[in-house]
Input
Amino acid sequence: MSAAPAGAVAAGTRATARWRWPALLVCWAVSRGFLVWIVAHEVPFYPDSRSAFLDLEVYARWLPDLTAGRLPVDDMWQYPPASAFFFLLGAIGTAPTTSLIAAILVADLVLTLVFARASMRAGALWVLFGLLVGPVLVTRFDIVPTLFAVLAVLSAGRPMAVGFWAAIGASAKVWPALVLPIVPRRAALRGGAAFLATVAMVAGLSALAFDGLTGFLGGQGSRGLQVESVGALPFLVANAVSGGVSLEYRYGAMEVTQAGAGPVAAVVSALAIAGFGWIAVAWWRGRLERSAPADVAFTVVLFSVVVSRVFSPQYSVWLLGLGVLCLVTGRLHGPVWLVAVAAVVTQAIYPMGYGWLLAGDPGLVALQVLRLALVVVAAGWAWYRVVIAPPAMTDSDDGVQRP
Output
């Protein structure tokens, strides 16, 4: 059989490429439309999906203060001031929750296009991962800081761009600052200067627009041990076995207020300090440079989630956003897929079975054990491959060391 002419092959390749973008956009629209439909309607196969609206209603409740130029520091406000610019989008139109969902969808579409521009496979993976996250994807604003964190990682090799994008994200929700270790030590001055200058600029703009600029620090500092965190698991197991564990709604989440919760939270915080110190030493010694930037960012953020006093369902958005980049440019495929499975388990816990979890239902507590086990194993696996045993460096033909 004769080979096809080169021109015919090239034409076929161009035709395939031409259809990839429309196909991706159709898949994105269908998947996100499905998530919005689940949130907007009580459907038999997805019980209690309407509870995902609760955060949107809180965002909407902040609008009178925000439009008056005040941050609602006395109403569960816990975000850096720049996030208020996003929440103000809820004032567009007559239905704040609808406007906010529309803004979240726009941010998600932009993130999908950013991924697809880097790699069509990355765009397709993000469309899939959005479904794994579930309706929380379209009812929380976490897609916004995730977008900036992804832009920072995609800017690896340009330290000032990394610092700029990480600062924009951190000005809305602190965690994108955790991607800064992808900047090599030799370029730390440029990346750090760009980060600090951008944070200062955004803070200045926020100060012009709102009062109560530092109020979020009190909200963050007052948070306790959230029931979904790793540290709270012993209390959930105890509640399933014997009941009587005290829980309280504070700062937008259910927290353990049982005796012993304070010391456990302190131990978790100590582990976080020790772990970040270890990461800092590895960065200083250049060990993190042996891994792909996406792998480094994913590992640091995943570790921060495991040792956090809070592990809300929307954290899956952060982890899978960075995880997409690991799958297309890095080596941490196994840990990323474990986190993806954990995201599906998280959907079964929240919103579908959250009330049962709080009541100590053994089945839901078992799902929480599975969820946390998957994430902890993923974190340990990623930590070993990036921090403890990174790939060896070899000299390439161009004289640059590469993993």
